[in-house]
Amino acid sequence: MPKRGENIRKRKDGRWEARIITDTGKPKSIYAHSYREVKEKIKKPPDETVTSFDKSDLTFKDICNLWLTDNEILNKKSTTAKYKSLCRNHIFPYFENIKPSEIQVNHINAFIRQKTYQSTLEAKTIHDIITLLMQIIRYGEKNGYIPPVKNNILSPSIPKKELDILSETEQKTLVNLIKNNITAENIGILLSLFAGLRLGEICALQWGDIDFNNGLISVTKTMQRIEVENKATKTEIIIDTPKSQKSIRKIPIPDFLTAQLKLLSKGCSNEAYILTGSKTRFIEPRAYQYKFKKYLTQANIRDINFHSLRHTFATRAIEQNVDIKTLSELLGHSTVNFTLDRYVHPSFSLKKQNIEKLAVCY
Predict the structure, then answer these.
(1) Cα–Cα separations (whole angstroms), residue 307 to 74, 190, 217, 273, 301
(2) What is the C-alpha to C-alpha distance for residues 317 and 327, in angstroms, rounded to an integer?
């Protein structure tokens, strides 16, 4: 297996790929049928490659691509696709006319200001872009592609958007609509409202993931549509492990939901997807989001994102005094602070109740 930091990876077609720098300073791939073979080829590079080159010939895009290649073998496919998209849509355009050797802290801070205060991007997206840029900058410094940048780089306070949750009335209306005609397709909405599952986790869920005896759901995978390069379709659906180790979890489900799932599972194999009852046919997240909007229209509920159901689950849990540690584990978060900072949004009625408690002695 390749060592951490090596620019070598095993491809899906079984070949091993190493990335080197050509005499023009551009990245180049070398292929072989084994790790040892490709390692030997690196030791004895072909004539058109050299071990030293004029680093001033590199563009910032070249440095970004080198960083992406170096880290590709360490990251999930979806993570690499996300990084490439952020580079292509945000970082490349801004820095394409700035030579790496001339990058200064004012260039970086101007970029951070632009993304933070002059864009309509979500707070998390802004945070991800800035974090990615700084990783590439530090990589460039370490390898001598970019001169050392002073540490007085902005750390902006990125305003967080108030996240939508369903009111208690809206939640009851939506639940009643679905309970009056529960199907394999619409039960995914209840799984998010009463178990806090993410959209991709629901779409990837199979009947074998349900333990009916103990009323548990095993979350071990997620479904995503990611961007791909050099393909006519430009995107593809992948089923992979969840976003973090903590997201691999077992979630207890309410008895009423267990009973409904058991009825829907009759005649289905363990390999069948819950939303379709088929082993070969699934509903992808984007399509399920579209179906969810139709249920909102039927229930005469304002337009919200599917992820708001997960926020609603977290908020209702807090209102029912579920402790934060338990909630964090149910949601599959890496830390309790993440749960508090990102996902728990007390309703006005809960705030009012707490204020009245403080005033009870008067």
Answers:
(1) 28, 12, 19, 20, 15
(2) 7
C-alpha span between 165 and 146 (Å, rounded): 45
Highest mean pLDDT among 139-153, 269-283, 309-323, 334-348: 269-283
Encoded tokens for 136 = 């590439």
Q: Distance between CA atoms of 6 and 74, rounded to whole angstroms? A: 10
Residue type, 15: R
Contact (Cβ atoms closer than 8 angstroms) between residue 345 and residue 195:
no
pLDDT in tens, 49-103: 434 445 667 889 999 988 998 888 778 888 999 999 999 999 999 998 899 988 9
* Number of other residues whose CB lies within 10 A of the CB of residue 222: 24
What region, left, alpha or beta, does residue 259 occupy, with left being phi > 0 and alpha being psi -120 to 50 degrees? alpha
Nearest to 341 by CA among 158, 156, 193, 160: 160
Burial 157-189 (b: 16+ CB within 10 A, else e): ebeeeebebbeeebbebbbebbeeebebbbbbb
Residues of the chain by 3-state class (helix, strand, coil), percent to 5: 50, 10, 40
Helix (H, G, I), strand (E, B) or coil at 253: coil
- Mean per-residue pLDDT, 288-300: 97
The whole-model pTM stands at 0.77
DSSP 119-185: ----HHHHHHHHHHHHHHHHHHHHTTSSPPPPS------PPPPPPP---HHHHHHHHHHHHTT--TT
Among 53, 56, 54, 32, smallest CA distance to 43 is for 32
Q: 215 and 252 in contact (C-beta within 8 Å)?
A: yes
Cβ atoms of 244 and 275 closer than 8 Å = no
Average pLDDT value for residue range 174-179: 96
On whether the CB atoms of residues 318 and 346 are closer than 8 A, the answer is: yes
Q: Are 319 and 347 in contact (CB under 8 A)?
A: yes
Q: Which string of DSSP letters, residue by residue, matches 70-119?
A: HHHTTS-HHHHHHHHHHIIIIIHHHHTTS-GGG--HHHHHHHHHHHHHS-
User: 194 vs 20, 255, 268, 315, 325, CA distance in Å?
Assistant: 51, 11, 23, 11, 17
Rounded-to-integer distance, Cα 319 and Cα 299, Å: 24
- The secondary structure of residue 343, as a DSSP letter, is I
pLDDT of residue 194: 96
